[in-house]
Amino acid sequence: MSSTFVVGRPCDTRLPRGSRKEPARVPHGFAAGIATVVSLALLCLAGGCAHAPVPREAGRSVAQSEADYYSDALAPWTYPEGPSWGAACAKQPPPQQSPIDLTRVTTAPWSASSVITQATFDGHDQNVVFQASPGPSVTMAPGVDGSGRAFVYTVAGFHFHYRNEHVIAGNPVYELHIKTVDQHGGVAVFAVLWTADDAAGEDPTLAAAYRSLSAPPDSVVAVDLGRALWRFGQQPFYSYVGSLTTPPCTTGIRWFVLQTPIRTSSASIGRLNAALIARGMPRDNVRTVRPVAQPQPVVYLVTPK
Fold first, then answer.
1. Per-residue pLDDT for 236 more than 70?
2. Structurally, how many domains does the chain consist of?
3. Fewest Cβ atoms closer than 10 Å to its Cβ: which of 122, 123, 230, 235?
4. 250 falls within a domain
């Protein structure tokens, strides 16, 4: 299935009121059509739309909650991490901050959730930002929290980091964050990492992002992140509660981090990074690994069923 979405004007990250609809569930598996193609456009240079999301109140629409949070703009901040990030980011855990070294934690197995994915995105962060109007989601039934409730994570934005923030096995060198809001008002981030392997060829997700950056200014180029999100329904991933990795370093954020990085050529990473830097992405937009709180927070290793 494919969807085309209206793209907002540069640095206008507010969504029109009532624009989001609850996504339809789709069959389990990529071949069955989980990959939703979304029209995206490059909107802001780094720092032009630097905001960070906060959980919305239950019962409020996504459009209302995002409008509220974007109206509460932060003071300017820059990389590398330092005084401009504020006191909340400098605080030591607990509560747990992100990113963390996932190779040095004790994990608890979780195999109760079926994961159904669709893909789309909006803009956010001090980064090169892509934005589109509302889109589909990732459904986890039950959610990875022990409550037994199902969660529907509607994507609100995505961006790349110049190199990996989380540490996982497999020598990752690149990281994508896909930010979402669930139907209960929580915020979650899906993290996809890549490792350089020239024998693997070009990754289609990175290639699509590069093509969108290379398009003429007034055109809209489709980017399909379904291949990346699909992996959360097929492959093991970590889940823990941490923070945003940008100011104000809001805590209570649910993270889903693929356990194994995707293999791609070093050329595809370098080409996309060069295009992002040319559009304003900082060369080192990476937060340092944070210490793990003691006692250690629960870190699930999820094997979707």
1. yes
2. 1
3. 235
4. yes
pLDDT in tens, 125-170: 444 444 444 444 688 888 998 888 899 888 777 889 999 999 999 9
Which residues form the domain of 190? Answer: 30-46+99-282+294-302
Tokens representing 78 are 């820059």
Q: Is the peptide bond before 297 cis (omega within 30 degrees of 0)?
A: no
Give the three-state DSSP class for 17: coil
Give percent helix, percent strand, percent coil of the chain, each to the nearest 5.
Answer: 20, 25, 55
Distance set, CA 169 to CA 40, 102, 158, 166 (Å): 32, 8, 23, 10
* Cβ-proximal residues to 295 (8 Å cutoff; 6+ apart), any chain: none
Q: Is residue 148 part of a domain?
A: yes
d(CA 79, CA 288): 11
CA–CA dist 280, 43 (Å, integer): 11
Give the C-alpha separation, 60 to 63, whole Å: 8
> Is 60 a member of any domain?
no
Task: State whether the Cα torsion 193-87-240-177 is positive or negative.
Answer: negative
Average pLDDT for 85-108: 95
In angstroms, the first-to-last Cα distance of the chain is 23
d(CA 119, CA 233): 13
**Residue 2 within a domain:** no
Q: CB-hemisphere CA count at 13 Å for 103?
A: 10
Alpha carbons 207 and 302: distance in angstroms, whole number: 28
CATH code assigned at 276 = 3.10.200.10
- How many Å separate Cα 163 from the centre of its chain? 14
Residue 169 CB coordination number (10 Å): 11
The arithmetic mean of pLDDT across residues 272-296, rounded, is: 93
Task: Say what the pLDDT of residue 283 is.
Answer: 87
Q: Which of 137, 128, 79, 136 is nearest to 279 (CA)?
A: 128
